[in-house]
């Protein structure tokens, strides 16, 4: 598309048709074509820029850090909702997950397991020695 406009612009600026030589717009046509070309290139640059920003946002969410202190306390309910979303014991899971998250500021990735990522979350045990955090 862009190349076609450029070729059309070069054709008309080099040798305009005889019918255009008599027209008062004949002198403005190359200028209008040039402005159109600039406008199209600016729009395409803006689209590419937005795609790059979207990719950066996607990569930042993919590179999410896990580990002790990786969360703020206000992020605990959302992370625990994610962590406990597939269990049949939702209420106790949410209770203990939020308790562990407030202490450790960490919730492991996934719905189950991966506790080695959050050492505090992994090492906190019940009185009987079982895992405290879901």
UniProtKB/TrEMBL annotation:
Coiled coil: none
InterPro entries for this protein: GASA (IPR003854)
Protein name per Swiss-Prot or TrEMBL: Gibberellin-regulated protein 6
Superkingdom of the source species: Eukaryota
Sequence similarity: Belongs to the GASA family.
Signal peptide annotation: 1-45
Keyword field: Signal
One Pfam family it belongs to: GASA
């Amino acid at each position: 598309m862009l190349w076609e406009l450029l070729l059309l612009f070069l054709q008309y600026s080099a040798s305009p048709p005889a019918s255009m030589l008599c027209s008062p717009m004949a002198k403005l046509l190359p200028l209008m074509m040039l402005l159109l070309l600039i406008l199209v290139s600016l729009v395409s640059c803006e689209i590419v820029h937005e795609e790059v920003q979207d990719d950066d946002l996607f990569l930042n969410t993919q590179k999410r850090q896990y580990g002790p202190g990786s969360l703020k306390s206000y992020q605990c309910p959302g992370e625990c909702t994610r962590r406990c979303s597939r269990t049949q014991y939702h209420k106790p899971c949410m209770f203990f997950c939020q308790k562990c998250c407030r202490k450790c500021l960490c919730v492991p990735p996934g719905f189950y397991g991966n506790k080695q990522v959050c050492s505090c979350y992994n090492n906190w045990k019940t009185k009987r020695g079982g895992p405290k955090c879901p």
